[in-house]
C-alpha cells in the first residue's frame, strides 16, 4: 500500500525575548502613569504597578531600583524625550523657543500628564528626597539645556551679553509654571508667543 505524504508543518516562530521585554516595559510605564494620576506618588507601590501591568514585581526591579526611577521614566515616556536634551539651534532664538515651549504647554494640557505632574509636585513639597532626586535627574538638566541655548544666543550677539542665563530661563518658564499651577488662565500657543515676544524685548542687546 502506497504511503501518502503529508505536508510538513511550518516551524513555529519562537517568541522574540526583546519584543516581549519591550511590551512588558511599556505595560509597566503605562500602569505606573495611570496609578500615579489616580492615587498620587505617596500611595503608589511596586506591587500595584505589577498588578496593573500584569507582570511579576521582580520584572519591575530588573529595570528600576525604586518607584522614583519608574516615575522618572514615566515622564520621559510621556514627553518623548530625555532629560537635558539640547534645544534646537537654528540661529533664530525666538523660533527655537517657540518650538520647545509650545511642546511644554501641549504636555501640560494633556489630562494624564496634568494629573501626574500635580501628584508629583504635591509630593515633592513633603518629600525632600524625592524633590532632590527629580530636581537632579529631570528638572535641572532641562533648565541647563535652556541656559545653554541662551548662552549660544548671547555668544552670537543676539541677546545682551550682561544677562544671566539662569535668571533669563526663569523669566521664560516661571510664568507658564505659575499659570498652570494656579490655574489663573489658559495655556496656549498664543500665550507662549506673547510671553516670548515680551521677554525678547528685555533681552535685546543695549546700544
UniProtKB/TrEMBL annotation:
Residues 22-82 form the HTH tetR-type domain. Residues 45-64 bind DNA. Pfam families: TetR_C_11, TetR_N. Residues 1-23 are annotated as: Disordered. Keywords: DNA-binding, Transcription, Transcription regulation. InterPro entries: Homeodomain-like_sf, HTH-type_TetR-like_transc_reg, HTH_TetR, Tet_transcr_reg_TetR-rel_C_sf, TetR_C. The keyword Transcription applies. It comes from the Bacteria. PANTHER family: HTH-TYPE TRANSCRIPTIONAL REGULATOR RUTR (PTHR30055), TETR-FAMILY TRANSCRIPTIONAL REGULATOR (PTHR30055:SF148). This is TetR/AcrR family transcriptional regulator. It comes from Nocardiopsis lambiniae.
Amino acid at each position: 500500500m502506497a504511503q501518502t505524504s503529508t505536508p510538513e508543518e511550518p516551524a513555529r516562530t519562537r517568541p522574540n525575548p526583546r519584543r516581549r521585554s519591550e511590551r512588558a516595559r511599556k505595560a509597566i510605564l503605562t500602569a505606573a502613569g495611570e496609578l500615579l494620576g489616580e492615587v498620587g506618588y505617596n500611595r503608589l507601590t511596586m506591587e500595584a504597578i505589577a498588578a496593573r501591568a500584569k507582570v511579576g514585581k521582580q520584572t519591575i526591579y530588573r529595570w528600576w531600583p525604586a518607584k522614583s526611577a519608574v516615575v522618572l521614566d514615566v515622564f520621559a515616556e510621556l514627553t518623548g524625550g530625555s532629560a537635558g536634551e539640547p534645544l534646537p539651534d537654528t540661529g533664530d532664538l525666538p523660533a527655537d523657543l517657540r518650538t520647545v515651549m509650545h511642546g511644554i504647554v501641549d504636555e501640560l494640557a494633556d489630562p494624564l500628564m496634568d494629573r501626574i505632574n500635580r501628584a508629583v509636585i504635591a509630593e515633592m513639597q513633603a518629600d525632600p528626597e524625592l524633590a532632590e532626586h527629580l530636581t537632579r535627574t529631570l528638572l535641572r538638566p532641562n533648565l541647563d539645556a535652556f541656559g545653554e541655548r541662551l548662552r549660544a544666543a548671547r555668544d552670537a550677539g543676539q541677546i545682551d551679553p550682561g544677562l544671566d542665563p539662569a535668571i533669563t530661563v526663569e523669566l521664560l518658564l516661571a510664568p507658564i509654571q505659575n499659570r498652570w499651577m494656579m490655574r489663573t488662565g489658559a495655556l496656549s500657543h498664543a500665550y507662549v508667543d506673547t510671553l516670548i515676544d515680551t521677554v525678547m524685548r528685555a533681552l535685546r542687546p543695549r546700544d
